Amino acid sequence: MAITRQDLETDRLRTSLCSTPVASALLPEEAFERSLRDALASRPDDCALHGDVWVFGYGSLIWNPMVVHTERQRATVHGYHRGFYLYSRINRGTWDNPGLVLGLDRGGCCHGMVFRIPSHMVEQEFRLLWRREMLTGAYHPRWLRIRTGTADGYGGPEQRALAFVMNREHEGYAGRLPDASVVERLRHAVGLYGPAREYLQQTLLGLATNGVDDPYLGRLWRQLQAHDAADAVHGHSDSDSGPADPPRPAGDEAPLPAPASPHETV
Questions:
Q1: 116: closest CA among 204, 30, 166, 57?
Q2: Residue 246 forms part of a structural domain
Q3: CA 129 to CA 131: how far, in whole Å?
Q4: Which of 37, 46, 50, 186 is deepest in the core (most CB within 10 A)?
Q5: Residue 30 within a domain
Q6: Annotated catalytic residue: which of 133, 171, 184, 253?
Q7: Where is the region Disordered (predicted)?
Q8: Domain that includes residue 144, residue range
């Protein structure tokens, strides 16, 4: 299954899940609307943007933003970092075998991309973002301070961007798992949008394409590759494995993944 912009416009995913056992995990409509209204009401007033707003992407938004935007830039958020902190029981896993997807959690910094949403389309595009990211209420939408235009995240102008940070009270919050636990989930979980490992592959590729290196994600990828190599030696492979013939980055890093389907939600 692949989700498209039209699916978000028609709220297809939520509608299809309302008649299934996972319906109880969906964010109630009233809470959904309240969250959206609160974010819109607190949008920053930046004269330089003339009413436009930035949205910060750190996972699937990097390689498949799906929202209308007039500009994109590399950006850094300080005070939050990226990690596999959210169990995925719909998109990249099931209730019996959850996968993992990325979330922003407290501490450190995170290099990603920001997308500029034109002022007259903010409410429309935010509604699509909410249908994509706030399906179960696993995130808190926050206007975070960002710096744009520099590789190290310092020296660029400070602005604010909407970002989805982890809701630590959500039942899907995984906390800080050891690498081995994360890799095991990524290796074996498959959801509506495909294998959990493909989510890591696409995020690594999206970051590398924009000149961003994430040592943590690279380390996980190398461990996945090591498991693949061990499986090959023993004459079997994971049925959930994604593409394995990616381009090689500079240095001694493990090869980056080849692109898969561009359609995704966090």
A1: 57
A2: no
A3: 5
A4: 186
A5: yes
A6: 133
A7: 230-266
A8: 5-176
DSSP-assigned states of every residue in 141-197: EEEEEEEES-SSS-SSPEEEEEEEEE-TTSTTB--S--HHHHHHHHHH-EETTEEHH
- Per residue in 120-141, pLDDT tens? 999 999 999 999 999 999 999 9
User: Which among 72, 94, 80, 83 is positioned nearest to 209, based on CA atoms?
Assistant: 72
Strands (E), 15-138: 53-57, 71-88, 99-117
- Residue ranges of the alpha helices (H) in the chain? 5-10, 12-17, 29-41, 60-63, 122-133, 179-188, 196-209, 215-233
Write out pLDDT tens, residues 27-80: 999 999 999 999 999 999 998 899 999 999 999 999 999 999 999 999 999 999
**Residue 199 in domain:** no
Tell me if 157 sits within 8 A of 147, measured CB to CB: yes
Distance CA 53, CA 161 (A): 7
Q: Specify the CATH number for the domain of residue 14.
A: 3.10.490.10
Q: What is the pTM of this model?
A: 0.85
By the 8 A CB rule, do 57 and 65 touch? yes
- Catalytic, 133? Answer yes
Total count of domains within the chain: 1
What is the rounded distance in angstroms from the CA atom of residue 104 to the CA atom of residue 61?
A: 13
Q: 191 in a domain, yes or no? A: no
